[in-house]
Design a protein that fits this description.
The complex is a heterodimer of chains A (113) and B (112). With 113 residues, chain A is mainly beta. Chain A is built from no helices and eleven strands. In chain A, a hairpin with a 4-residue loop joins strand 7 and strand 8. Chain A is globular. The N and C termini of chain A lie far apart (38 Å). The model of chain B has no long low-confidence stretch (mean pLDDT 93). Chain B is 0% helix and 54% strand. Chain B has 112 residues and is mainly β. The chains are: A mainly beta (113), B mainly beta (112). The interface between A and B is medium-sized, with 20 and 24 residues.
Chain lengths: 113, 112
């Protein structure tokens, strides 16, 4: 049973566009929601993360929106650039110092010049 | 942050053989995690490796197939045993620093 559902599977936007990637979770015990960016041949790298006590978090061009009642969170990339082309994974965990991350299936983003 | 080095970065192996993947971290960490990422797919946790105790395996993964060593706080190995083409995948080592997880670059394994 997949505990974090991610959509879309792939996304193509033009430079300057605002791609939005959505995730939904089922486990109400989850309390940490990171997004990872992965380039081909590289391991995933943390992009931005949010906890459920806030509804939005911005870091540079990346914004997470969080809806606790709907159990959904999304990643928005403002003014997207071709260098943002990568696979993006949402994830979740139930906290603690020895947590295990549950990952979504990933979204392949292509930003055309 | 933690810097993780994995070796080898890629390998092509014959079915029926075994491959040991090494993971070296630049700082001492309590727990290390091993993930599998099949082509175009998400990350699946194989096991959690604690120093000084047996690894904890996730459902669908067993020690006989994926033995893990954790001899100290900066190093771990994952062995993929008796390989079949279905084991072709990227294997990733990960550590945790408070809430942030860091990943190695992965080992791309192809079994022929």
């Amino acid at each position: 049973q997949q505990q974090v559902k991610q959509s879309p599977q792939s996304l193509i936007v033009q430079k300057g566009g605002i791609p939005i990637i959505n995730c939904a979770y089922e486990n109400t015990a989850f309390d940490y929601f990171p997004w990872y960016q992965q380039f081909p041949g590289k391991g995933p790298a943390l992009l931005i993360a949010i906890r459920p006590d806030v509804s939005e978090k911005k870091e540079g061009r990346f914004t997470i929106s969080f809806n606790k009642s709907a159990k959904q969170f999304s990643l928005h990339i403002m003014d997207s650039q071709p260098g943002d082309s990568a696979t993006y994974f949402c994830a979740a965990n139930s906290g603690g110092s020895n947590y295990k991350l549950t990952f979504g299936k990933g979204t392949l983003l292509t930003v055309n010049p | 942050s933690a810097v993780i080095s994995q070796k080898p970065s890629r390998d092509i192996c014959q079915r029926g053989t075994s491959l040991t993947i090494q993971c070296q971290v630049d700082s001492q960490v309590t727990m290390m995690f091993w993930y599998r990422q099949q082509p175009g797919q998400s990350l699946t946790l194989i096991a959690t490796a604690n120093q000084g105790s047996e690894a904890t395996y996730e459902s669908g993964f067993v020690i006989d197939k994926f033995p893990i060593s954790r001899p100290n706080l900066t190093f771990s190995t994952l062995t993929v045993s008796n390989m079949s083409p279905e084991d072709s995948s990227i294997y990733l080592c990960s550590v945790q620093d408070n809430t942030e997880a860091f990943f190695g670059q992965g080992t791309r394994l192809t079994v022929v």
